[in-house]
């Protein structure tokens, strides 16, 4: 079995950053100060498929944005943390809350602020436009960019490693 598959197989919790991962990293700010972000629907469906197999989902983001909270609720994200300055502390809280071990967690990030969690999980993932220092500390770098299918790619990788991909895809052809 491929080493990446071995790292993805035990994942029971996928933790994600938002800006640069679930989005392309750009933030549009209206004249009234409202932030606008674009999310990829392929990522969203990948998350729903992964969640249907029992994998929990979490977002840990440094920013607090109403649009992100709305998207997280719409996707049924199990654990949502916004405005976080210490991602390591939130990760410890998540482990305690879920009863999981760090080896059962995957994290996808795009910047150095994600390294405190990436360096502790069993499966650390970066997007291709992350700084080289971050990519060097990832077990896997997605082919797709943040906001452009990176999360879907990761979801499918986990689904394949856990033997759920073919069954889920077959349902769409029935």
Automatic annotation (TrEMBL):
Keyword Magnesium: yes
Cofactor(s), by name: Mg(2+)
InterPro entries the record matches: CMP-NeuNAc_synthase, HAD-like_sf, HAD-SF_hydro_IIIA, HAD_sf, KdsC_fam
UniProtKB keywords: Hydrolase, Magnesium, Metal-binding
Subunit structure as annotated in this protein's UniProt entry: Homotetramer.
Family (UniProt): Belongs to the KdsC family.
This protein's name: KdsC family phosphatase
